[in-house]
């Protein structure tokens, strides 16, 4: 369980973050700060994390965001979606190059937010068969940072974490440097954000990836990774997804057609005057609408007692 955090403690943490990171401090919601501060201490689970430990953890998150350029990722999407003759594109060619590389990673449609769990947690879907064999590691990680932040901004009021569902039917050969950089980003930039990562079906590549990553994961994170066999997939997804069976996508044996919104790159129109084909802004709007709908209907679907 979690421990209590007082209002005074919350305001101390808030004030400290605001003075150190004036540009970006609103990124962390009160609900998230409380969720981090109220966790059991890893060195002694019978007590709460000390306030200094929480401060240090959150400060590290904010420093990592600064170093990774996280607050500017959405601006890069807009840059890559505009013409190359735009003043911003002409004045900062390196920025444009970074933006175009990130948008290329998005365009594969291999990762996107769509729908919620019964508890209102946003769901990040991973279509491993759309991942490139030879990824641009930095661009792929930047695309994940962009997406993670978009999902976090759209979360219901008291929600602090998300769920990742991976269709691991025919993944590309594992790329260890991408895997490790992605894990580093998750651990440093998004502690306590992952509620669960479920991957189905179980194959040799996924087992290889798990054997590579599990020893590198903090205990709390490792316990959130679930591998699901084909036989139990329908039941697990029905329990998890907001509208149960109706939300199971076609690529996992259901009827919900994600390709209507997130087709393969070859079927995507260009979104603007640049290189963005992936419907990033539509995805954000749909997620915000799903959350608004969820909150209007009174929040989490409680299981019958």
Structure, explained:
- With 305 residues, this protein is α/β, with parallel strands linked by helices.
- Helices cover 47% and strands 11% of the residues.
- The chain is built from twelve helices and seven strands.
- A five-stranded mixed beta sheet has the order 3-4-5-6-7.
- The radius of gyration is 20 Å and the shape is globular.
- The chain starts with 6 loop residues before the first helix and ends in a 9-residue tail after the last helix.
Structural class: alpha/beta
Give the end-to-end Cα distance, rounded to a whole number of Å: 21 Å
Largest sheet: 5 strands, mixed
Number of strands: 7
The low-pLDDT segments are none
Strand content is 5-15%
Order of helices and strands: HHEEHHHHEEHEHEHHEHH
Mean pLDDT, as a whole number? Answer: 94
Query: What is the 3D shape?
Result: globular
Estimated radius of gyration: 20 Å
Strand order of the largest sheet: 3-4-5-6-7
Portion of residues within helices: 40-55%
Total of DSSP H or I helical runs spanning 4+ residues: 12
Task: Describe the structure concisely for a colleague.
This protein has helices spanning 7-20, 30-37, 51-68, 73-81, 87-91, 93-107, 137-154, 176-189, 204-213, 219-222, 230-240, 280-296; strands spanning 40-41, 44-48, 111-116, 122-127, 162-167, 194-200, 225-227. It has 305 residues and is of the alpha/beta class.
Write the layout of secondary structure elements.
Layout: H1 7-20, H2 30-37, E1 40-41, E2 44-48, H3 51-68, H4 73-81, H5 87-91, H6 93-107, E3 111-116, E4 122-127, H7 137-154, E5 162-167, H8 176-189, E6 194-200, H9 204-213, H10 219-222, E7 225-227, H11 230-240, H12 280-296
């Amino acid at each position: 369980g979690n421990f209590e955090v007082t209002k005074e403690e919350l305001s101390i943490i808030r004030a400290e973050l605001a003075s150190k990171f004036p540009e970006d401090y609103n990124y962390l919601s009160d609900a998230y700060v409380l969720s981090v501060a109220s966790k059991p201490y890893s060195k002694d689970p019978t007590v709460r994390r000390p306030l200094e430990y929480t401060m240090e953890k959150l400060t590290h998150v904010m420093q990592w965001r600064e170093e990774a350029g996280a607050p500017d990722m959405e601006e890069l999407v807009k840059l890559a979606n505009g013409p190359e003759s735009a003043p911003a594109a002409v004045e900062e060619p390196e920025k444009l190059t970074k933006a175009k590389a990130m948008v290329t990673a998005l365009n594969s449609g291999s990762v996107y937010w769509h729908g919620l769990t019964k508890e209102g947690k946003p769901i990040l879907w991973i279509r491993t068969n759309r991942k490139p064999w030879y990824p641009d590691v930095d661009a792929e990680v930047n695309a994940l940072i962009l997406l993670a932040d978009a999902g976090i901004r759209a979360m219901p009021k008291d929600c602090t974490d998300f769920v990742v569902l991976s269709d691991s039917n025919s993944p590309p050969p594992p790329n260890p440097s991408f895997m490790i950089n992605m894990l580093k980003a998750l651990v440093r930039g998004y502690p306590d954000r992952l509620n669960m990562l479920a991957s189905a079906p179980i194959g040799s590549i996924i087992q290889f990836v798990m054997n590579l990553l599990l020893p590198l994961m903090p205990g709390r994170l490792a316990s959130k990774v679930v591998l699901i066999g084909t036989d139990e997939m329908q039941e697990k997804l029905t329990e998890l997804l907001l509208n149960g069976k109706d939300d199971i996508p076609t690529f996992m044996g259901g009827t919900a057609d994600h390709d209507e919104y997130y087709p393969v790159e070859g079927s995507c129109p260009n979104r603007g005057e640049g290189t963005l084909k992936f419907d990033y802004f539509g995805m954000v709007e749909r997620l915000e609408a799903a959350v608004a709908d969820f909150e209007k209907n009174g929040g989490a679907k409680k299981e019958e007692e």
